[in-house]
Amino acid sequence: MEQIGIVEARKRLGTLVSRAVHAHVPVRISRSADEHAVLISEDDYTELQKLRAEREIAEFQDRIDSAGRGETTPVAFETAEQMYSHFGVSHPGERR
Q1: Phi/psi of residue 75, nearest 5 degrees
Q2: Are 47 and 75 contained in the same domain?
Q3: Could you give the CA distance from residue 4 to residue 1 in angstroms, rounded to a whole number?
Q4: What is the mean pLDDT of residues 8-35?
Q5: Does 93 fall in a domain?
Q6: Phi, psi of 90 (to 5 degrees)
Q7: Do residues 55 and 61 touch, judged by C-beta distance below 8 A?
Q8: For residues 56 and 60, what is the distance between their CA atoms, to the nearest angstrom?
């Protein structure tokens, strides 16, 4: 993956977007020593979100199955936010 600074990314943004969209080449953009972002295509982002959702569903199913086998104690939640927090996953629409 190519890594560039934010100043260079601004200069080359059109090219970087084209490469991300057509060649699926991600670019790591650094703003400072500890601030980084990755430019990817919308298709790649959609796939990433799909994989994340599938992983979270599998984790929930594993925990439900574990409770069904008596390996854990079932827990009741008053809100969806409490449930997501308990399982350590972000609520849909929440930024990670």
Answers
A1: -125, 135
A2: yes
A3: 10
A4: 96
A5: no
A6: -80, 145
A7: no
A8: 6
Query: What's the token pair of residue 92?
Result: 């849909």
Assign 70 to helix, strand or coil: coil
User: Is 94 domain-assigned?
Assistant: no
Residue type, 21: V
pLDDT, tens digit, 9 for 90 and up, residues 43-65:
999 999 999 999 989 988 998 88
d(CA 72, CA 40): 40
Calculate the CA dihedral of residues 73, 74, 76, 82 and round it to 10 degrees.
80
Quote the CA–CA distance of 18 and 1 in Å, as a whole number: 15
Does residue 93 surpass a pLDDT of 80? no
Give the chain's domain count. 2
* Least confident stretch, 44-48, 72-76, 83-87: 72-76
Centre a 10 Å sphere on the Cβ of residue 29 and count the other Cβ atoms it contains. 21
Is the pTM here over 0.85, yes or no?
no
